[in-house]
């Protein structure tokens, strides 16, 4: 057992505060990571504030983690001390059913989230990346390409894979028109990755205030959803709409932007239900789907793709004690485009 320092939420309504806790002793298949950087995902805020109704306190958030391996168990083969390593949204999963072979382990019961969960023993709490170290099974750690800016790779572990997976599943590529709704942490990764895959990307943002950025990131078109004309101009345009919005929007208006057979994919997870009219779907064989992160195999594939195409997140590096202020800025969409905590400041 070793002690770790970090920041935790102790209640839905209180700011995060310094917290010292025990990390479990490493087993033979574990690695210990000296955390260097940890991204702030909007899911951290939803969970800290118990907006999904499943909060366990004290909660050390953070599932966009990169660091340096500081120890390895005797059975570890993939990592050695000194390697760069990353941890995303989960640290264990069902290993007995066939799904692991299908690379769908993240959709199966038995998934252990990196924080706000319990280890497979059902009693040891998991604590996330807003801390200085983590112990994880090597099979749930990712290799980080050496050529990428280290701090800016952290958000790839959640925001990156969350966009890469549906882009691949719905076959975004040359000839495909893809809209990304919301230019935040997830959305800006969708623009970069979708453009690198060769799709024609349109950003649908609340205003045009980030238009210049959106076009620089790789979008071909940029529209404001506050302008009713946008929904007339773009009616029936997209093969795929990736919605990263964390709040309620006029779902039916967005469905009208899909082509025949188009898919609207929910990535953002608002608190309330999503009401959809049959007429928004039926006359054009449209579908509404959801997608959550990606498997370990696909996450590694995404990281290697980013290494090859030199893709990282656009980040604002902050000190640990700025985390509460950063949360308020995320809620105001005042982040370009991901806050990353410098763990050296813990
Ligand atoms: P974020 O950085 O806050 O980005 C969300 C973006 O949505 C904002 O930048 C804003 O873009 C837009 N937006 C916010 N409020 C809006 C409103 N009221 N109406 C219309 N647009 C609004 O958050 P994030 O970290 O990217 O996460 C986004 C959502 O995805 C969260 O709900 C998070 O929990 C969820 N998430 C899901 C997965 C998954 O696996 N499915 C993984 C990670 C996160 P504009 O300023 O451009 O309008
Ligand atoms: Zn996340």
Verbal overview:
The protein is α/β, with parallel strands linked by helices and 346 residues long. The chain has 2 domains: 2-156 and 314-345, Medium-chain alcohol dehydrogenases, catalytic domain (Quinone Oxidoreductase, Chain A, domain 1), CATH 3.90.180.10; 159-290, Rossmann fold (3-Layer(aba) Sandwich). Helix content is 24%, strand content 27%. The protein is built from 11 helices and 19 strands. The protein has helices at residues 42-48, 99-102, 150-153, 159-169, 185-196, 211-217, 228-233, 251-255, 278-281, 296-309, 323-331, and strands spanning 2-8, 17-23, 30-39, 65-72, 84-87, 90-92, 112-113, 117-118, 125-126, 133-137, 142-143, 177-181, 200-205, 221-224, 238-243, 258-266, 287-290, 315-318, 338-342. The strands form 5 sheets. Strands 3, 4, 5, 10, 11, 18 and 19 form a 7-stranded mixed beta sheet that branches. It has a 6-stranded parallel beta sheet with strand order 14-13-12-15-16-17, covered by helices on one side. Strands 1-2 form a two-stranded antiparallel sheet. The longest helix has 14 residues, at 296-309. It is globular and about 60 Å long. The protein starts with a strand and ends with a strand. The model has no long low-confidence stretch (mean pLDDT 96). The structure holds NADP nicotinamide-adenine-dinucleotide phosphate and zinc ion (ZN). Residues 41-43, 46, 158, 162, 182-187, 205-206, 210, 244-247, 249, 267-269, 291-293, 330, 333, 335 line the site of NADP nicotinamide-adenine-dinucleotide phosphate (NAP).
């Amino acid at each position: 057992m070793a002690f770790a320092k970090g920041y935790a939420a102790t209640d839905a309504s209180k700011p995060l505060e310094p917290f010292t806790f025990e990390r479990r002793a490493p087993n033979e298949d574990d690695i210990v990571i000296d955390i260097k950087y940890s991204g702030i995902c909007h899911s951290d805020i939803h969970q800290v504030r118990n907006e999904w109704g499943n909060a366990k306190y004290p909660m050390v958030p953070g599932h966009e983690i990169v660091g340096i391996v500081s120890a390895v168990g005797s059975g570890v083969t993939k990592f050695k001390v000194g390697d760069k390593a990353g941890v995303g949204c989960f640290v264990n999963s069902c290993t007995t059913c066939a799904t692991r072979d299908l690379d769908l382990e993240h959709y199966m019961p038995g998934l252990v989230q990196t924080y706000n969960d319990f280890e497979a023993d059902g009693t040891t709490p998991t604590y996330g990346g807003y801390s200085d170290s983590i112990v994880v099974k090597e099979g749930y750690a990712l290799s980080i390409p050496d050529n990428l800016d280290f701090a800016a790779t952290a958000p790839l572990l959640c925001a990156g894979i969350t966009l890469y997976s549906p882009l691949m599943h719905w076959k975004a590529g040359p000839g495909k028109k893809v809209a990304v709704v919301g230019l935040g942490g997830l959305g800006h990764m969708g623009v970069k990755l979708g453009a690198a895959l060769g799709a024609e990307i349109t950003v649908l943002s609340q205003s045009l205030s980030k238009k210049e950025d959106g076009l620089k990131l790789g979008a071909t078109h940029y529209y404001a959803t506050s302008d009713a004309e946008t929904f007339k101009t773009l009616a029936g345009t997209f093969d795929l709409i990736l919605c990263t919005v964390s709040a309620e929007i006029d779902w039916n208006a967005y469905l009208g932007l899909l082509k025949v057979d188009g898919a609207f994919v929910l990535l953002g997870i608002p608190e309330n239900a999503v009401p959809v009219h049959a007429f928004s779907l039926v006359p054009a064989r449209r579908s509404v789907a959801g997608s959550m992160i990606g498997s370990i195999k696909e996450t590694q594939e995404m990281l290697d793709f980013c290494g090859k195409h030199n893709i990282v997140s656009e980040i604002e590096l902050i000190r640990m004690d700025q985390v509460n202020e950063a949360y308020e800025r995320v809620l105001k969409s005042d982040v370009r485009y991901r806050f990353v905590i410098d763990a050296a400041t813990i």
